Amino acid sequence: MNIHEYQAKEVFRRYGIPTPQGIAAFSVAEAVEAAKRLIHDTDSQVVVVKAQIHAGGRGKAGGVKVVKGADAAKSAAEELLGKVLVTPQTGPEGKKVQRLYVEQGLAIAGEYYLAAAVDRESKRVVIMASSEGGVDIEEVAEKHPEKIHKVFVDPAVGLMPYQIRQLAYGLGLSKKAQRSFHKLLSSLAQLFVEEDCSIAEVNPMIVTADQECIALDAKINFVGNGAFRH
Ligand code: ADP
Ligand code: MG
Is 64 in the pocket of ligand 1 (CB under 6 A)? Predict the structure, then answer.
């Protein structure tokens, strides 16, 4: 089972994973209201209008619009709602945009890839992290597998602090960002197990200018067999 980015971010927030402020919108009018509220609440004109479809790769396909001001947000919403987006993950027929997520625009100092998944071979949860975030991680996996750092979680003890440190070093995070990363990743690992996920992906996780780690994108898939528990 697959959910939208804005729904995955609601789950993230329940586990204390920092995300940008955002509001889901189902019409242009709602998107404008959302943009105005975010501009007011964050005291910044920069908002991001994001198409909600069950596929990634939206940025490159024009499905993520970083704009300034409520009028520009309106134009972006008009352009996106009802549009068929074709991304490398939708197939050639594309997917129709029926929902938007209007989000606070954040200044990005660094973009990283972070994900939890099930490794069938070791029968453990694997955490993957890479400094090559934001871009096509499949391509990194193929051409530069050494740039993806992995740790495997022992189910008896859970994700250990030394494993988080290992990943943080691999990403080359500052001392302050490491503390923030520790909290984010501990929460992600807990969420992954408690919510019966098959994948929980943050691409990109960003580091802001003041060295805070934030989930800028969120993708969660659930294991169908665990659905009865929720
Ligand atoms: P997708 O993975 O479907 O392309 P993302 O949510 O990862 O969509 O967004 C693509 C890119 O757009 C990000 O890598 C980032 O550069 C930019 N972006 C997305 N959300 C924000 C935001 N809230 N603030 C600033 N930039 C953003
Ligand atoms: Mg993404």
Answer: yes
Tell me which of 6, 113, 132, 212 is the catalytic residue.
113
Q: Per the structure block, which two tokens stand in for 106? A: 């954040």
Q: Write down the pLDDT at residue 228.
A: 87
Give every CB contact of residue 40 below 8 A, 6+ residues apart in sequence. Answer: none
Phi, psi of 41, rounded to the nearest 5 degrees: -70, -35
Kindly report, residue by residue over 183-209, the tens digit of the pLDDT. Answer: 999 999 999 999 999 999 999 999 999
Supply 136's token pair.
């096509």
Report how far ligand 2's centroid is from the alpha carbon of 177 (Å). 20
Half-sphere exposure of 21 (CA within 13 A, CB side): 14
**Count of other CB atoms within 10 angstroms of residue 28:** 19
Q: Under the phi-then-psi rule, with left for phi > 0, alpha for psi from -120 to 50, and beta for the rest, what region is 138?
A: alpha
- In Å, what is the CA distance from 229 to each residue of 52, 86, 92, 191, 222? 26, 35, 36, 14, 11
| pLDDT at position 2 | 84
Residue 56 Cβ inside 6 Å of ligand 1? The answer reads yes
132 CB near ligand 1 (under 6 Å): no
Ligand 1 center to 64 CA (angstroms): 6
Q: Where are the alpha helices (DSSP H) in 24-133?
A: 28-42, 70-80
Low-confidence ranges of the chain (pLDDT < 70): 135
Token pair for 159: 């994700």
d(CA 143, CA 121): 22
Q: Give the residue, by CA position, lying nearest to ligand 1 atom 20.
A: 216
Q: Is 78 a catalytic residue?
A: no
